[in-house]
Amino acid sequence: MGLIGSNWLVVPIVLPLATATLAMLVGRRSAPYLGLLTASGILLSVAAIGLTVLEEGTIRYQLGGWEAPLGINLYADGLAVFMLLMTAIVGAAVSAYAVGYFTSRQDESGRVAGDSGDRSGSFWVLWMFLWASLNGLFLSADAFNLYVTLEIMGLSAAGLVTLERRQSALSSGMRYLFVTLLGSLAYLMGVALLYGALGALDLATLGELMYPGAATWSALALITLGMALKTGLFPLHFWMPAAYSNAISPASALLAGLVGKASFYLLLRLWFDVFDGGLGPGPGQVLGLLGAAAIVWGAVMAVRQRRLKRLLAYSSVSQIGYLFVLFSLATTASWGFDAWSGGVYHAFSHACAKAAMFMSAGAIVRSVGHDDLDRMQGVGQQMPLAVAGFALGGVTLMGLPPTGGFTAKWLLVSASLESGQWWIAVVLLAGGVLAALYVLRFLNPALIQVKVGPVARPATQNLEVTAFVLAFGSFFLALLSAPLLALLRIGTPFASVLLVGTP
Amino acid sequence: MSPVTFYLLSSVGIFVVCLYGLIVHAHLIRKILALNMMGSAVFLLLTGVARRGELTDPVPHAMVLTGIVVAVSATAFALAVARRLYEECGRAYLPEEDPEDLSEEREG
Amino acid sequence: MSFAELLPLLVILSSALASFVIFFLRDDRSRLRTSIYLGGEIVKLGLVLVMLQGIYVGAQYELRVPLLPDIDFLLQANELAMLFLILSAGLWLLTTLYSIGYLRHAPNRARFFGFFGLSVSATAGIALSGNLFTFFIFYELLTLVTYPLVVHRETPAAMRIGRQYLVYTLGGGVVLLAGIVSLQLVAGSLEFVAGGTLTGDEASPAILIAIFALLIGGLGVKNAFVPLHSWLPAAMIAPTPVSALLHGVAVVKAGAFGIVRVIHEIYGIELAAELGVTLPVAILASFTIIYGSIKAISQDELKKRLAYSTVSQVSFIALGVSLVGYLDTVGGVAHLVHQGIMKVTLFFCAGVIAETIGVKYVSKMGGVGRRMPWTMGAFALGSLGMIGVPPMAGFVSKWYLGVGAIEAGQPWVIAVLVTSTVLNTVYFLPVLYVSFFGKPTGEWQEERPHTRFEADWLLLFPTLAVAGLVFLIGLFAGWELSPLGWAELIASRQWEGQFGN
Amino acid sequence: MNLEGLLSVLWPAALVLPLLLAAGMTYKGTRALSIALTPLSPLPALGLAVFGEDAGVDLPYILIGMSLGLTDATRVFLLFTALLWTIAAVYARGYMANDYRQPRFFAFFLITMTGNLGLIMSRDLASFYLFFSLMSFFAYGMVVHEATEKARKAAHVYLIMTILAEACLLPAVLITAGVTGTIDLGAVPAGLAGSEARDTVVLLATLGFGVKAGAFTLHLWLPLAHPAAPTPASAVLSGTMIKAGLLGWMLLIPAGEVPMPFWGVLFMAAGLVAAFYGVLVGLTQGQPKTILAYSSISQMGFMTAVLGAAIAVPEAWPVALFAIPIYAAHHALIKGALFLGVGVAERTEESRHRFQRLLVIGGLVLAALALAGAPLTSGAAAKDYLKGITDLAPLPWDNVLYSGLDLAAVGSTLIMARFLFAVWPPAGGQEQRPPALLFVPWLVSVGGVAALVLFLPETLAELPGLLLTFEALWPLAAGVLLVTVAWYLDRRFGGKPRERLVPAVPEGDLLIPVTRSLSLVRRGWKSHAAPSLERSVKFVTDQGEAYASELVKIRTAADRLESWAQVWIVAGALALMLVLTVLALSVLV
């Protein structure tokens, strides 16, 4: 079992890579089917990995049998599986969405685009590369492999943004590319410093050898900078609204749902596995503070937007804040695991919800031909499913039960109160109300009835259904808290806390 | 000053200077160049690190090699995008603001 | 899973599933929709009755599913839960019949009935919650599923009000959540336990008081404590069945019910009294009672007047349970049902009048009593009940509250009761006077053709049924299965020994 | 079925039957039958009053546990109340025969009656309050029935006063139940006597029941409402319902348990003032029904004053418990006969039937004499019973009461004379007879008045001694003398002294200054308080607007900040700051 079980680890990386290559060859006709097939394959393999991890604990797999430091090691613990699962679910949904998205002849601005088939082919290639890099990133057990997957991820993501041949898409894609390259380089610099200081790349080894010193401090700072840039932590989110809103909607969904989470995961992984909680309480406080600021600032800016997709982008700025709050909460104290798992849970539920919302937004934009919030009247009449999907996703952002956002918020608030940092709890809770405000910023005009709705545009039934299903599924994520939290316990850096903390 | 320290310092110097360049130069090619140079700075550091012990450490070399591959492909991609941007809007600069952000004009 | 475990879940799901199916039916398939919906309702009512009988003879219904570390999703039926449950399930049936008549030709009926059923499910969940965590889940769900009903008309004004509604209720939810999380950290348990979960040793009194303030502050939004009440009159923009069942009963009661739970089954009346937190609640409730009544006087729009009356009346529940006495607790809990039925009656009447002859303002109600004597008769019963005229239901609550207040040594409450009675008279009697003795101000705006009855029978009959209930549950309050009798059962079984006597 | 079984059904039936008939008014098909049966509806209660001594029934499932029953005192109350309602019901059928609003009137009539009977029969606080408010509120429908401007105004005042009364009664009842821990009316006075809340309850009860009983200063509604209602309603309003207030006092005030000199004196003083005030104002009135209403105020003053003595001195309580019901019964029947007589006389005016006219005049005179306490009438005995208490009253008050009652009897004579002048049916006219449905019940009531003496709790042998006393005679004689003198003077000077001496007091007397001062307050509010309030509201809203514009400024500033952060240099600087901060903190902390 062990052999078969650990071999599963390769599948989520190799399978999309193979598909990407194949997709380049087969062309745009069959690429969607390949994509769907891959998606189901990945879902299956992730499920298998998940079950194995649940049963047997963490898995380590040496590619080709080479041991660290020379060989490439894959490592799956609860956190990695959790992220894989998130990626698989969102990825599968986006794949299904993309099939519908590219069969329609018109692009979002309503013009007939001659190259839409072309874009479809590129989309599948880029997306499969992206998926492979994401899975690789979650499973990598050494710092340099992480860099490689990070770069592949950044490049394919930037590619997805620039798929659209509009000036706005190109320029925001360009900007995104610079940012992501800069982030990767900062990360590589950090890794170089670490290697210089500790002489290892394997994460577990690095964690064991870690000592505070000039090199490790600098490495921490650089890696933090790189990941903060790539995740779009306030105030370094300057590239985000443009990139998210100008990309085509499936790409937006992937960027907002998954890519941001991957860089966050990387930071999380290094912070607690390697840097032992940020080498002291100070840096964590900075990130927590910025996270809290992001929650408020992002939400305020989201309310101020006039365009649907920009609103969603700023909402991501705000929601990312929730993730970073955990850095100031997760310490070795008894609430550490609560904070850590709360943040991770938030990543999961936000990924599903935000992807669903971008997908809904895409369907709406495609149907009405614009994403001007002030002209959304009658959309609710015309596209009830899309609006419902958006609303359900919005509920997750508000953090209401029974969405996953609620579990996350509960855990984070609980941790922040327990640690005595009640001001974080205030921000977290206020963020929920602010989220309601920006969700309503769309729903309010959209639900207003008009005598004659916007002229009927291409059928977007499939897009709406996909978005709705994802939103509806993620709506009940809180009900899965018990098994998912059990999964997260496997191999968590807070194992010691758990033994003491919970009965 | 040991050679390692020298490499380290010069690498950091190059990294910072190029970072400055990336930020202040508007022209896309300059930005791409700056990024490339930053990459080189990191490679410099890695090669320096490899010389730290008695024996030359092969791992950083492998990393540099991989890094160069990545840098090459990233540069190629960046150049392609820059070229397409130039074709689409006739300039090789990034607008400081998202053009669709605050524009009053609306599609319709 | 045994039947006893499953039953609470089934009670919640029976309405939820029916509603869910309805979402996917086309709007014009009204016969199928109605049969599914009514089927769900009858199943639910049947289950509730089975459960009621079981509880009466002492059976246990409990469903426990672990959800978060140390926190379970817990559904638990007990006497108090049944009181709220039977109220919501019973009134739901009547309100549904009424809604069918009310929305006969309106668009978006599938959505309306769907969310309506979900709201009732959420209310059932609130009733059956066995701990604050579960309570909160359903509490927030109720907020969510009532939002589409508030904005059902989909006009810009409705949307604006919907936004206000959501911000208020979510804001309250946030505060409540803060309170619940803190409580979990302090006490380690959120379960509703007769006599209170807390012993008072968990933390310093200051912290316990702060948590109490958070909990009551959060619940106070839905309970419409002044100054957190302004969403309620605004929400009257919703269709009348919504105003009647949800804003007259379910939503505000969710807050009131939560307050009952917190005071009696989280803190326990003794600890609460010891901490000195009950008096502020009582004062807040009293202030709300009087303020709401005063505001009601100046409202010309009938539904607004009723809304402010709700603001005022709901706080009697909080007042009753915060007075630390046996009798006023009974009165407060009984008022939970009494106020619900009375308010539904009044809203139904307002709806019938508005639908049949297009009259929405008190000043234009001259002659309505002659045109629609049955409806106005029902309105008279409801409003006399609100005033507290015996033998209507409202009198019984006021009696228990007043006598209990004296027994508990809080004579000032009598002044509140009397002031409220006078103010209620001032804002209800003119309505009756104008409609029975006033002259019509002109042609009715949009009169529906006069059928065999004075209004659509689907509107009229439920109205008369609830009006009859207002009278009967007051008249037969002494019967042991009346709301009052049940409230006494609750107080004696669940909270026995908490009171000094 | 034996008598007991029959009785136990009769108790609830006495209350349910009229309600059923009232419900019958709502449906066309049963309307006629219900109206026809209305006169029968008080009969069960009447039967209970006659046969139902010491019996009772408990209905624990009603309200808070209803308990019905009778004591000696309430039995008398029930007796005359049921009787008068029966008579009024028959009369009303005739009176209302041509009124299309008949069903509505009878519905209110029946429910009010239920309240009136029920409050006498109830033996627990809650039911008492229930029936009392039932009666109070539904009487509104009878007062307003004519729907004239006058009736509306009267009903309006009535309603406001009733609400105020309820506002006093509700707390009184609640506090009583709270402090005594019981709702049994038999146990309430004892429980209340020793409690701290006694004075509060007494105060509230005084005010609350005082409105119904027409106590001085609380009587504002009475001279308006009693005349405004249709005649049968006036009869029961003035005859029986007014006594409900009295009964309330007797039940709730713990007289006979502890001496309460303060309250006793208050009652005595207020009663005497009312006795004279009613007469004085009544004399100035022209409408016969208004005169009767003022007479009622005056007569209630008698009873109030005597009750006051019993409140002050517990020893007087048993006597009062005996005397007051009898006086109440006496007054109720007479007032009923007088009011109904007004209606009969109105319709007899233009009749040529001499006999009938004589009969009407005779009956009215008889009733008037009885009210004035003339010898050989029940009035003489009733007043004698009342005087029996005065001996027991505390010191200065025994004499004051004694002579007060006599003087007031003079007043009664005067006001009855005034009434007779007002109502005197003119001779001659057309051929028209009052319908039998008016005439017969009135005759019965007059007969009742005459026969009342026979039912006094005395043996026949003692009656003459009781009824033929000088004490009974002299006030009457004095009154008649005064009337004659006044009449002579009036004739002599052609009515001028009357115009000059007798000020025209408007109906509702004290109500006028009260409403004036209220409107003054309102005007003051409108001219002074309201503008300043508006100003302050405007100030607040202005502040709000200023705040809002500030908010807009902040918002645009936020927008600018956000776009500024998108500039590369700024972003770079921010990134650098982040690195440095993390570095610094990881080093330092």
Account of the 3D structure:
The complex is a heterotetramer of chains A (503), B (108), C (501) and D (589). Chain A is mainly alpha-helical. Chain A contains 21 helices and two strands. In chain A, strands 1-2 form a two-stranded antiparallel ribbon. In chain A, helix 11 (249-274) runs antiparallel to helix 14 (336-368). The model of chain A is unreliable at 106-117 (pLDDT under 50). Chain B is mainly alpha-helical. Chain B has a single domain (3-89), classed as Helix Hairpins (Orthogonal Bundle), CATH 1.10.287.3510. The termini of chain B are far apart. Residues 99-108 of chain B have low confidence and may be disordered. Chain C has 501 residues and is mostly helical. Chain C has helices at residues 3-23, 30-56, 79-102, 109-128, 132-150, 156-187, 205-222, 231-234, 240-267, 269-275, 278-297, 302-321, 326-357, 368-371, 373-387, 393-407, 412-437, 457-475, 483-493; strands spanning 61-68, 71-77. Chain C has a two-stranded antiparallel sheet with strand order 1-2. In chain C, strand 1 (61-68) and strand 2 form a beta hairpin. Chain D has three domains: 1-254, no CATH class; 256-505, no CATH class; 513-588. The N and C termini of chain D lie far apart (98 Å). Chain D is mainly α. Classes of the chains: A mainly alpha (503), B mainly alpha (108), C mainly alpha (501), D mainly alpha (589). At the A-B interface, helix 6, helix 7 and helix 10 of A face helix 1, helix 2 and helix 3 of B.
Structural class of chain B: mainly alpha
CATH C-level of chain B: Mainly Alpha
Gap between N and C termini of chain B: 66 Å
Task: Tell me the distance between the termini of chain A.
Answer: 32 Å
The interface involving the most residues is between:
A-B, 46 and 42 residues
> In percent, how helical is the residue content of chain B?
over 70%
SSE-based structural type of chain A: mainly alpha
**What string gives the helices and strands of chain A in order?**
HHHEEHHHHHHHHHHHHHHHHHH
Using the alpha-carbon principal axes, give the shape of chain B.
Answer: elongated
Helix run count of chain A: 21
The proportion of residues forming helix of chain A, as a percent range, comes to over 70%
Write down the CATH topology of chain B.
Helix Hairpins
* Largest sheet: spatial strand order of chain A: 1-2
Query: What does the average pLDDT of chain A come to?
Result: 86
Strand content of chain A: under 5%
Major sheet attributes of chain B: none
What portion of residues of chain B belong to β-strands? under 5%
Write the element-wise H/E pattern of chain B from the N-terminal end onward: HHH
Could you say how many structural domains of chain B there are in total? 1
Number of extended strands of chain A: 2
- The Rg value of chain B, from CA coordinates, equals 19 Å
